[in-house]
Design goal:
The chain has about 190 residues and is mainly alpha-helical. Helix 4 runs antiparallel to helix 5 and helix 5 packs antiparallel against helix 6.
């Protein structure tokens, strides 16, 4: 990877996204690589804090601070991956898997165990991916990922989207755990 400072000014301007203001393309208001890294970390913290805030509102055991810390940590690893340590991201995602697994636990309820906090564990994995994307400078991807994650987490609480929630349809279908009636099913 060639450092940004080693490129000619015209080459750096060609690397900028098409929506970059013309004044920035000409070198006015340049953002140093270190400042860009800080901006990416701030975006990672803000986006993952929003996910954690939603989890806090819904009473999940992991909330805004934990999500923001995971986002900042994944953002730092994303920055490191961009600057020459690509395997650091793989290790961070494995570590996030262990944090998520620590949140999930079984609770006996009747004859079946009830698994709790699985949604929060999945949201933590999403927060790590969002933080890593922001850390790598993929801010649009991180923002859209956050919006989609929030939409998925809130689908049952938005009246217009409530029909998309599987729980609203569950009473109309047979549960996988309920026994089949005699005379029904394959080969009977």
């Amino acid at each position: 990877m060639v450092p940004c400072s080693a490129l000619a000014p015209a080459s750096r301007a060609a690397m900028l996204p098409s929506w970059t203001p013309p004044r920035m393309r000409q070198g006015v208001g340049k953002v140093t690589p270190a400042a860009a890294d800080v901006i990416h970390l701030l975006v990672a913290a803000a986006l993952t804090y929003a996910l954690g805030f939603e989890r806090d509102l819904r009473g999940a055991p992991a909330g805004d601070r934990l999500f923001a810390l995971i986002g900042v940590g994944a953002g730092i690893v994303g920055v490191l991956a961009v600057h020459g340590a690509p395997t650091a991201l793989q290790g961070a995602l494995v570590g996030i898997g262990f944090i998520g697994a620590g949140l999930v636990f079984r609770q006996p309820q009747g004859h079946l165990p009830l698994i709790r906090n699985l949604t929060t564990a999945a949201a933590i994995f999403a927060a790590a991916a969002i933080g890593a994307a922001a850390g790598e400078g993929r801010l649009l991807l991180a923002t859209v990922g956050t919006a989609l994650a929030l939409l998925v987490l809130e689908v049952r609480h938005i009246p217009l989207l409530r029909p998309l929630d599987g729980r609203s349809w569950a009473p109309r279908f047979r549960d996988d755990e309920s026994p089949r009636r005699a005379g029904r099913g394959c080969g009977r």
